[in-house]
Design a protein that fits this description.
The structure holds 2 protein chains of 2 kinds. By secondary structure, chain A is an alpha+beta fold. In chain A, about 20% of the residues lie in helices and about 35% in strands. In chain A, the strands form 2 sheets. Chain A has a 3-stranded antiparallel β-sheet with strand order 2-1-3, covered by helices on one side. In chain A, strands 5-4-6 form a 3-stranded antiparallel β-sheet, covered by helices on one side. In chain A, β4 (about 75-85) and β5 (about 90-95) form a beta hairpin. Chain B is an alpha+beta fold. In chain B, the strands form 2 sheets. In chain B, strands 2-1-3 form a 3-stranded antiparallel β-sheet, covered by helices on one side. Classes of the chains: A alpha+beta, B alpha+beta. Chains A and B meet through β1, β2, α1, β3 and β5 of A and β1, β2, α1, β3 and β5 of B.
Chain lengths: ~150, ~150
């Protein structure tokens, strides 16, 4: 795990060109609207003729689960779960290398959303996640298996 | 403030994939990961190599003004040394010309930019979380992208 976080500040010049300033900061610093980042943005404002349009902090956390071989253990095989949000928009979440014995109704590529592991994941997502717009997710409408062409990322 | 959480995967061939999740407010990966990672591990044969959180603030600070170096290609490059001896650079686009010595290339660390430099030194760290020491600063210009 990294010892700190990465603060990225986007600066936009008078002519519209954009540059980024990357600064490593302490691991405890996570609020891009807090006093520390506000002070850094003010310092950059004094040094630069550009304006700061965005500040973001990236906090990494390493994990070490184990991969396994399976029927769909390739990253191009995906289980797609489709969710609807409170604004009636749909959002797809594509999970790589889905476990075949857990998900699919016999002889189809349809996800069994009542299967215990799938249902647990769907329940957690509905309880904790929003759409990128900030609107709450309201339900999972279904899922399927897809396979991307070689070299194409979802 | 919202949080974008990125889960990074590696399959058994070493190929990579990512998933992005969005939370309202601040979501700390050290508290979310113990719950989310087992749920994801149960449905996939791929391995999870990391969970990264990104917190963003889109408030605009300052005003963009014209100047002799007011483009993203012109930069103020500040050189620091970390506690472990390594060297690190912070580059700032469109530098204000008043930040330089009369040669218009050397950063004037004791002049108008002194307070800003002090603020950066207060908060910036090296990759191991150690303090930085200022070494020097200069103006650079990035070449255009090669075709």
């Amino acid at each position: 795990m990294a010892a700190g976080n990465k603060l990225t500040i986007v600066l936009k010049s008078y002519g519209g060109t954009v540059g980024r300033v990357a600064i490593l900061v302490a691991a405890a610093l996570v609020d891009p609207s807090g006093a520390a980042v506000t002070a850094i943005r003010a310092a950059l404002d004094a040094l630069s003729k550009a304006k700061s349009t965005r500040a973001s902090i990236n906090k990494p956390l390493a994990q070490a689960t184990t991969s396994a071989a399976g029927v769909y253990s390739d990253d191009q095989d995906k289980m797609v779960l489709t969710f609807k949000d409170a604004a009636s928009k749909y959002h797809n979440f594509k999970f790589p290398a889905p476990k075949v014995e857990c998900f699919f109704e016999e002889d189809t590529d349809i996800v069994d959303t009542s299967q215990a592991d799938v249902a647990a994941l769907i329940g957690w997502m509905l309880a904790n996640l929003n759409a990128p717009s900030g609107v709450a997710l309201t339900g999972c409408v279904g899922g399927s298996r897809i396979r991307l062409r070689s070299g194409k990322r979802a | 403030m919202s949080t974008e959480l990125t889960v990074r995967w590696n399959d058994s061939d070493g190929q990579k994939a990512t998933n992005k999740f969005h939370f309202a407010g601040t979501a700390d990966p050290s508290t979310v990961a113990p719950v989310l990672v087992p749920l994801l591990d149960a449905i996939s044969d791929a391995a999870i190599s990391g969970v990264d959180a990104m917190y963003a603030d889109n408030t605009v600070v300052g005003t963009a003004v014209a100047g002799p170096y007011a483009t993203a290609k012109d930069k103020l490059e500040l050189l620091f040394q970390g506690a472990g001896g390594g060297f690190y650079r912070i580059t700032i686009p469109a530098p204000d010309e008043s930040m330089f010595l009369p040669d218009k290339e050397t950063f004037d660390a004791a002049g108008a930019g002194a307070a800003s430099l002090a603020t950066i030194l207060t908060h910036a760290t090296d990759p191991n979380g150690g303090a930085l020491t200022y070494i020097s600063g200069k103006r650079i210009k990035r070449r255009r992208k090669k075709s």
